[in-house]
Design brief:
The model has no long low-confidence stretch (mean pLDDT 93). It contains 12 helices and 12 strands. α1 runs parallel beside α10 and α9 runs parallel beside α10. It folds into 2 domains: 236 residues, TIM Barrel (Alpha-Beta Barrel), CATH 3.20.20.70; 67 residues, Type Iii Antifreeze Protein Isoform Hplc 12. α1 links the parallel β3 and β4.
C-alpha cells in the first residue's frame, strides 16, 4: 500500500508511527481544559489531537425506552444514550478555536464525525482527515461522504466483522479514495489486554492492503508498544490531563505522564526494530577481539616442536588465527620459539 499524508505528515512505510491523542470526553465541558489538553498533548510527543463531532441529537434519539438504556456491564450502565452524549459532547462552537490552538502547537487536528452534518461542518474547518469510530463502520452513507472529500479515512474496527470491514473499505475505494488506515480496536472500556489480539494488525495490511494501526482501550502502554513490532503505523489512545477530575472516558485514558511514557516506549520500539542488518555494530566491533575466539599457544614451545592439542587451543580473545584452521595446523611444526599465551600466527608454522 502507498504512504498517505495527513496534513504535512507522511504515514506508512519507514516513517515513524503516527501517534494520536484522543480528546474524546476529557474536556469536562470546559473549553479551557480542552485547550490545555491540546497543549499538553504536544508536550507528550503526540503527533495529532483528535476530536469527536456530534451532538446528542445527531448521534441518537432522546428516548427513554429499554432499547436506549445502557446496561451491558459498562461504567455507563443506567444511563440512556441521549443522557450520556449530552454530558460528553464537544460543543461545535469550540471546534474552530481548538483547531487553531492545535495548529499553533504544531499538532495535526482532525475529528470523528458521527453524522452527515458533522462532515459538512468539518469541511468548513478544512479538517485534514476523517476518523470513523468503531460503531460508525456500519454507517455506509457516512463513510461514503467522508471518502468523497478525497481526504484520508482512518477506520476503527471494534464492532466489525470481516464482511463489515470489507464493505467499509470498498465504499472508500468505490469513490476513488484509497487513502485508508485501518485500526485494530477492541470495543470494551477498558479493554482486557488478552482481547487485544494484536496479530490482527499485520493481517490488516496483508488482507486489505491498507495502512494498519491500533486504536487502544487497554490500560497502560504495553499494547501500543507491542503493536509497533506487529506493523502498526498509527496509534490512537485516549488522553486526559488529570484522571482525578473524572469523566466518562477517564478510566481508560492516559494522563500526561503515562502518555509521555507511551510515546517514548513506541519510539524506543521503533529504534529497536530498526531494519534488516548483519552489521554487528560499532560497540560490538570494538569488543569483538576481546570476546571472540582464536588459536593461542598454551605452553612454551621451541622451533621444530610438533603442533599438538597440548600446545595450542581455541580461547578468548580473538588475536590469533581463526579456529577454523585448528585441524589443518595440528601435526605441523613450529617455525620459531614461542612462549605461553602468544596468539598463534601463520609465521609460527612451518
Amino acid at each position: 500500500m502507498k504512504n498517505i499524508h495527513i496534513g504535512n505528515t507522511e504515514i506508512g512505510g519507514d516513517n515513524p508511527c503516527f501517534i494520536i491523542a484522543e480528546l474524546s470526553a476529557n474536556h469536562g465541558k470546559d473549553i479551557n481544559i480542552a485547550i490545555e489538553t491540546i497543549r499538553a498533548a504536544k508536550k507528550t510527543g503526540a503527533d495529532a489531537i483528535k476530536l469527536q463531532t456530534f451532538t446528542p441529537d445527531t448521534i441518537t434519539l432522546d428516548a427513554k425506552n429499554e432499547a436506549f438504556l445502557i446496561n451491558h456491564g459498562t461504567q455507563w450502565d443506567g444511563k440512556y444514550l441521549h443522557e450520556l452524549y449530552n454530558e460528553t459532547y464537544l460543543p461545535w462552537e469550540w471546534h474552530e478555536r481548538l483547531f487553531k490552538v492545535a495548529k499553533e502547537e504544531g499538532l495535526v487536528c482532525f475529528s470523528s464525525p458521527f453524522d452527515l452534518t458533522a462532515v459538512d461542518f468539518l469541511e468548513t474547518l478544512n479538517t485534514p482527515a476523517y476518523k470513523i469510530a468503531s460503531p460508525e463502520i456500519l454507517d455506509i452513507p457516512l463513510i461514503e461522504k467522508c471518502a468523497k472529500t478525497g481526504k484520508p479515512i482512518i477506520i476503527s474496527t471494534g464492532i466489525a466483522t470481516i464482511a463489515d470491514i470489507d464493505l467499509a473499505i470498498n465504499t472508500c475505494r468505490n469513490v476513488g479514495n484509497n487513502q485508508i488506515v485501518l485500526l485494530k480496536c477492541t470495543t470494551s472500556y477498558p479493554a482486557p489486554i488478552e482481547d487485544a489480539n494484536l496479530k490482527t494488525i499485520n493481517n490488516f495490511a496483508e488482507t486489505f492492503h491498507v495502512i494498519p494501526g491500533l486504536s487502544d482501550h487497554t490500560l497502560g502502554t504495553i499494547a501500543p508498544t507491542v503493536s509497533v513490532a506487529l506493523g502498526a503505523k498509527v496509534i490512537e489512545k485516549h488522553f486526559i490531563l488529570d484522571k482525578s477530575v473524572g469523566g466518562a472516558d477517564a478510566a481508560f485514558s492516559l494522563d500526561v505522564e503515562e502518555f509521555t511514557q507511551m510515546v517514548k516506549s513506541v519510539r524506543d520500539a521503533e529504534k529497536a526494530i530498526g531494519q534488516v542488518s548483519y552489521n554487528i555494530g560499532s560497540k560490538a566491533t570494538n569488543l569483538s577481539k576481546l570476546a571472540s575466539r582464536s588459536l593461542f599457544i598454551t605452553k612454551d614451545v621451541k622451533k621444530g616442536d610438533l603442533i599438538t592439542e597440548e600446545n595450542i587451543r581455541s580461547v578468548r580473545p580473538g588475536n590469533g588465527i581463526h579456529p577454523k584452521h585448528y585441524k589443518e595446523i595440528l601435526g605441523k611444526k613450529f617455525a620459531k620459539d614461542a612462549s605461553f599465551a602468544t596468539p598463534l600466527d601463520f609465521k609460527h608454522i612451518k
